[in-house]
Amino acid sequence: MFRHLREDIDCIRQRDPAARSRWEVLTCYPGLHALWMHRVAHSCWHNGLQWLGRFISHIARFLTGIEIHPGAQIGRFVFIDHGMGIVIGETAVVGEGSTIYQGVTLGGTSTIRGAKRHPTLGRNVIVGAGAKVLGGFSVGDRARIGSNAVVVKEVPAGATAVGNPARILHKETDAQREEAANAMGFSAYGITQEGDDPLTKALHGLIDHAAAQQREIDRLIMTLERNGISLEEVKSETPKVDADRLNRLVDD
After folding, report:
1. Cα distances (Å, whole numbers) of residue 84 to 1, 31, 40
2. Is the pLDDT score of 199 beyond 50?
3. CA end-to-end span of the chain, whole Å?
4. The model's pTM
């Protein structure tokens, strides 16, 4: 038991640069307290004391702001950072070494009693703040769920899911795309500083780029015409980029 307690404390100190001492972690980290109380509730749940397990879970929710159903399976070295508003459902599984931030929901979409209704997280999964993972599917090892993403389908190992509904970005095939997206001012791991969805931000960037190209083309045509080269036919056939209208369409 004490070995597990030391593991939990060391896990937090390794992953949170704000943790300055074991005593601080022991006394001031609600995610740690929620995990400890969940282990007691989980033991009660699987030993025929379902009501007691639910009651302990209810007390933990009141004290920490983190609601973990006593039937959920939580692996070792799991780190719940901040934790307020986290909800983990009955049939959810959280793999070893995973990190879960505040406001996360591991929820179910089925009402069938006894069915696998909640997600299974593999090892070393990171779930960003405010993300919702809904359904009885799996999230592969080392996958990342971006902040405020809404995930309703399986996420492969090593992939990143962002947006609402979430899109899957694979490390190998989308590395250049993520790099280009970051250059536009947002992180593919989560959301932009302005709160935009990554796809929306990328589309706005492409529209602005197309509008800038259109302005350069118009300037070149004007220069040629001033030098006696008529381009009326080209001007009539060249479509114009209405950046304002396209940006409004993306926002809608």
Report:
1. 26, 9, 20
2. yes
3. 54
4. 0.68
pLDDT, tens digit (0-9, with 9 covering 90-100), for 48-102: 999 999 999 999 999 999 999 999 999 999 999 988 999 999 999 999 999 999 9
Query: What are the structure tokens assigned to 179, written together?
Result: 């790099």
Neighbours of 214 (CB within 10 A): 16
**Do residues 37 and 59 lie in contact, with contact meaning Cβ atoms separated by under 8 Å?**
yes
Query: Could you give the CA distance from residue 213 to residue 111 in angstroms, rounded to a whole number?
Result: 53
The DSSP bridge partners found for residue 126 are 99, 144
Quick one: pLDDT band at residue 239, thresholds 50, 70, 90?
low
The per-residue DSSP string of 60-74 comes to HHHHHS-EE-TT-EE
Structure tokens at 29: 């980290």
Tell me the CB-side half-sphere exposure of residue 210, using CA atoms within 13 A.
Answer: 14
Residues 6 or more apart whose CB falls under 8 angstroms from that of 39 comprise 4, 74
d(CA 76, CA 88): 16
Greatest CA separation found in the chain?
92
Q: Which residue has better confidence, 198 or 61? A: 61
